[in-house]
Specification:
The complex is a heterodimer of chains A (306) and B (483). The two termini of chain A are 14 Å apart. Chain A contains 15 helices and no strands. Chain B has 483 residues and is α+β, with helices and mostly antiparallel strands. In chain B, a hairpin with a 2-residue loop joins strand 10 and strand 11. In chain B, helix 2 runs antiparallel to helix 6 and helix 3 crosses helix 13. Chain B is globular and about 70 Å long. The chains are: A mainly alpha (306), B alpha+beta (483).
Amino acid sequence: MLSRVAERLYWFGRYLERAESTARLLSVYTNLLLDLPNVQFLWPALVQITGYEQGFHQRFKHTTERNVVRFLLDDPRCSLRYCVTQARENVRTSRDLMPNEAWEKINELQLLLSQTDLGRISREDRHILLSNVIDLCLELTGYLSGSMSRQLPYYFLKIGRQIERADMTTRVIDVACLNLMSSRTESDEASDNILWMGVLSSLNGYQMYRQEMQERVQGLLVTEFLMRDDAFPRSVRHAILEAKESLSRLPRHADAKTLAEALSDQLGDLDVASVIDSGRLHAFIDDIQADISAIHANISETWFLR
Amino acid sequence: MNLLDYPSNARFYDEVFRAPNRAREGMGPLAQYLRRLESQQVRSKRDAAELAIRTLGISFTVYSDGANIDRQWPFDIVPRIIHGSEWDGIEQGLKQRLQALNQFITDIYNEQHIIKEGIIPADILLSSRDYRPECQGVKPKYNVWAHICGSDLIRDHTGQFLVLEDNLRVPSGVSYMLENRNVSKRVVPELLNKLPIRPMDDYPSQLFDTLCSISPRAKKRPEVVVLTPGIYNSAYFEHAFLAQRMGAELVEGGDLFVDSDDCVYMKTVEGASRVDVIYRRIDDLFLDPEVFHPGSMLGVPGLMRAWLNGNVALANAPGVGVADDKVVYTYVPDMIRFYLGEEPILPNVPSYLCSDPDQRAFVLDHLESLVVKPANESGGYGMFIGSKAAPEEFDEITRLIKKSPRNYMAQPIISLSTAPTLIDQQLEPRHVDLRPFTLQGAESYVTAGGLTRVALVKGSLVVNSSQGGGSKDTWVVDFDRVH
């Protein structure tokens, strides 16, 4: 398999995952605002999650709902539209490696976004658009996992998705902790719970959390669940374990696999309470993100370098 | 459909009708089929064809971001039929021609017997824009340089097939030929079923076998790759199509490198992997920035070195263009006699060389009834058509011919044959040509039929897709096997 093709499939996986999670985040946070109309700090939080705050502030003066939505849907370098375009760019030269339906779905996605004026979409239409996007992404991933042979193309695509997923979940937790665990008053507690439920829902994890933790929703447990649960598909640890499993199917995988293993072990040993007590949570999450970047760098060096 | 109105014009040979409503021998079933088509059916067949092309075409039109980088291919539902017995002769003629051309290229880059014997003047070759001194002394496997050839054939007013051009560089169109058959299967299955048509879908396997046969390493399964300039090339669809059908990697220049052992490798997830045969779909001058255009991003630095050392096969080989020159073309019948000791089976279109003083004088006196072509252009560029030219174009071409006679040749305006073509709801005659594909490696092969291109504009002789051309499926039918 050509390195160039492997690299493009990997990035296809990453952008596809990023598109889906962007749509989900925006959809959940839009809903939360209906429950909690006063929590305006949520909009800056969404920009923080993208990691492109600088780009946002260059373009917009105020962090309002309208501007954030525009940014997340339509920004030329960081938005849902951008992710879908990039996903499509990356696979159009490797279309014969995946089922035709997958290619049709990605075109449908692109078409859906190009037919909508994303800068001016109403709240009502936004909801419909985002759920259509999420459905199309799920159909697409369904075709991929249901029809692609477990061979190199599938593994590269899957590794891309899992690395992106681990990265995205880490960002969501980081931003939630920054905003929710900082010094806020007792009276915020009720709304905090609703917000943590929102964090879980943005990763589609509320039901699974209830089943697994059998505890009411609270920040510490949610953080623990999303970081170290080994069964929930969008927990950081699960994503890394899945990536490790796919990495082990590739030729010359020793180094990448070792890195992934070390990270998943570290997450497995995580004791969130004591990390929070020592005030190191943000630093810890930074370390995890650095480790994810290191795995990405190793993948790129081992299989893509040209 | 009413065929009584189908015009017949004695100036042109019509592929189906010899007189109004009188079908040629063997064309009865087609004529009858067309006659019985209700206008409702015609519409639905045309829709079905459009749908089929869109479905196949999704693959090559949805790319359009802003600029449409691949346009749809207008397809006429009425097939073009050629008798199997006539085709056998054409097939022999094409093989003969390519064999002679390959011997000629070997000769030109080696002993140059044909010049020493006075058959072709030396200055014609050495002034050819596509003569590559780098190729001197090279003898590729089987002495074959042009492994894939896409000749353009036309029928004159008597019905005789003539060779208009030998396309030896990077001929394209074969994927459309194959796709046209797929469209026909969906659109006119009843007619297809009735006639014993020679299949053509084994072309990718034949191409793969040809490419394997020229591998420098004796391996059971040599590594064959298709080298494309990338997705923005207009023939990218074809490059991807052929790679996929052959099970070969589709590579871009950046995927390959030449190592210190002068062998070519591709960059794979397993590491570097040796490449034996490159079916290159980029021009000579972009192949290797170390030798040709230094700025080329499409090629592979060191590729010529690897080829000259015999470590990789290139199809077609660099330097083939020397035989794909409209002036050299006029000597092909002489080459066939010289190298093969045979008479040419397929004649050339009569041609006049402007480098010859007598012929030049004739050309300049008869410009209004001639087509004048530059020696090195393809795709109809720079062509002068006497019957359609404006007065200032006459002055311009006269000046150009006098300035560099070597660069021009002229041919009579040829009356391309016509074929019934669906225009709106009626059949009308439109001019057609034919591009069959010939392969030569350890063995020779000719496609059963080829790509029929049709000039959709009334009276037009220009069949190029960029200038209002469409295409037809081409059926070689063995009528003696009709039951």
